[in-house]
Amino acid sequence: NTFLVTFNYSNMSITLGCDENGTVTGDESYNEITPEKGQPTIKKVKTAGKIIDVTSGKKVSGVTLNFREGKNNKDGDVVASETADSGEYSVELDPGDYTVEVIAEGYNKEYFELYVSDSGTDIEQNFSISPSLSSNEIRFVLEWGATPQDLDSYLDGATSDGTRVAVSYFNKKVVKSGKTIAELDLDDVSGFGPETTTLYNTDGKYEYKVHRYSFAGDLASSGATVKIYTSSSSNPIVITVPNDVDSEWWTVCTVDKGEIKNINGKVS
Asked: CB within 8 A of 34, min separation 6: which ones?
């Protein structure tokens, strides 16, 4: 363009193409934005990862991811959207906090918090999602950090007719009369999880707890969380390991005829 207009705004020098009177003629006019000397430039950061089925550990295809700026922002403007047809996604984001909405047919809609650092280092972040449950079913999903390398989940109790239920890595399924009562769907032994247990018969009394199998690390600093999905709610209950938990065992909650109670030992 023959004519240019330049002004300063928010620590930047902004130059726009215009006519001889200084009027910007359209949204396709020449433009240049330059940070003032000494001002840092913001570089988008590549964020990529997989969408994982919590019951199989396999990638989920046909997933839509919507990124919104800020924490716990489920209704704001979508600043980036990505379709993970093959179960993997890749998107470039400005540094900051984001709420990620993950949608897939046959699965619960999920929301995750994501922090993008201004260090410029690429981020690898996987998201685990749960298949939708049928009536009167409950699913427990255990996730944690790199250490301890192996945490194990235990579901103990009995149905209302007295059938003993004890599900863990050494007894992964309880079946009666051809019907599965409870099952350890996925056992993770390499850190992070997910490790998943599904209770198909909620008419009984049960206790769900976590054991530190690995010698290295401890439960309190493991970053462990348990998501509890029920067929009556679209949002999971999220329980975080307390700081004063025993070094080897964490009693997460009880289930009494389908009702989640006694979370972290607090009587309800």
From this structure: 12, 13, 14, 15
